[in-house]
Amino acid sequence: MTEVSPPADLAIETRGLSKRFRHRAAVDGIDLAVPRGSVFGFLGPNGSGKTTTIRLLLGLAAATNGHIRVLGGEMPRQLAAVLPHVGSLVEGPAFYPFLSGAANLRRLDSADLHASPSTRAARVDEALERVGLSHAAGKKVRAYSLGMKQRLGIAHALLRPRELLVLDEPTNGLDPQGTREVRSLVRSLAAGGTTVFVSSHLLAEVEQMCTHVGVMSVGKLVAQGTLHELRAAGTATIRLHTPDIEAAVRVLSRLGLQSELSAASHGSDGQSLVSTGSPGHDVAPEAIVAALVADGVRVRGFGVENASLEERFVSLTGEGFDIAG
Ligand SMILES: Nc1ncnc2c1ncn2[C@@H]1O[C@H](COP(=O)(O)OP(=O)(O)O)[C@@H](O)[C@H]1O
Ligand SMILES: [Mg+2]
After folding, report:
1. Which residue's CA lies nearest to atom 7 of ligand 1?
2. Which of 99, 102, 223, 320 is a plausible cystine mate for 137, CB 3.0–4.6 Å?
């Protein structure tokens, strides 16, 4: 990467990135920060602006406003230096059904002016190997399953060594088997050190594949961070049974939790409190219990439930996410 500078620890960075179509903003001032080495899930319902953003990142469409850096290079100004390091799968790739997988890749490779013809066969073999299609190299693409076609599309993106892979809904339209194939491929690519930016409208999928997530809603990036951070930012519900209600309420409120007496249980050994709030990940259940005990609260029952990531996303985007897939 001699032409692209300086080395940054972000593979993708945008500032105020916007794209308007007539009067509507499909992408509305987003600040993305995709760490190198992450598998970044770009999550949002259909129509939330994922594909438009990806097209902007790759220089396939021009932004209305904002700045983009990909692998440290400003886009689209340094596009020619950046793109050879970026593999992408945006629209379903167009393969010739009457040619084999290997023959299709050889054709696509020959269209790449930077690719030496003498090493073509080896490059194609290696790309097929990486996506687990070596056994089907000579088979006509017509006979490929959807999952195999999608993996061939990823093999195309991998014909050259890549630092970053950008995949737009790579499991869309795949059956469960194809979906599993693509997910495990994404994980194995990431394990090899490639940064992967992958969009999806399926929360469960992002939870299974990704280390980081950015959530889109109506063109806006409404949250981003590690999966862990997003979970921790959600609401927790604490159930406490104690005879020392007043002291308990004081301690919990100090920790940022609002308490209510639970109607359910008023036993001879105390009363139950239900407390909710966003204590953050630095307040672990054991820390809450320790704080209660330190103030003389006799803890006779205790439990914590964290809001699921799904509840968190529903509250962020105002819609349900498919949990299937
Ligand atoms: N070329 C275009 N012209 C006009 N509107 C568009 C165009 N491309 C996308 N849009 C609109 O932008 C919004 C975001 O679309 P898109 O980026 O495809 O969302 P996603 O990939 O999250 O489903 C949608 O409302 C869509 O209709
Ligand atoms: Mg899309």
Report:
1. 21
2. 102
**Residue ranges making up the domain that contains 298:** 237-305
Question: Could you report the per-residue pLDDT of 130-177, keeping only the tens digit for each?
Answer: 888 999 999 999 999 888 898 899 899 888 889 999 999 998 878 888
Instruction: For residues 130 and 171, state if they share a domain.
Output: yes
Atom of ligand 1 nearest to the CA of 168: 21
The helix or strand, by DSSP H or E, that contains position 52, with its residue range, turns out to be helix 50-57
Q: What are the pLDDT digits (tens) for 229-249?
A: 887 777 778 899 999 999 999
The residue contributing the CA closest to ligand 1 atom 27 is: 47
Number of folded domains that form the chain: 2
Which residues place a Cβ less than 5 A from the ion ligand 2?
Answer: 50-51
- Render the burial of 285-324: b for 16+ CB within 10 Å, e for the rest: eeebbebbeeeebebeeeebebbebbebbeebbeeebeee
Q: Which pair of tokens denotes residue 143? A: 């006979």
Residue 213 is assigned to a structural domain of this protein: yes
Whole-prediction pTM: 0.79
Distance of CA 86 to the CA centre of its chain: 17
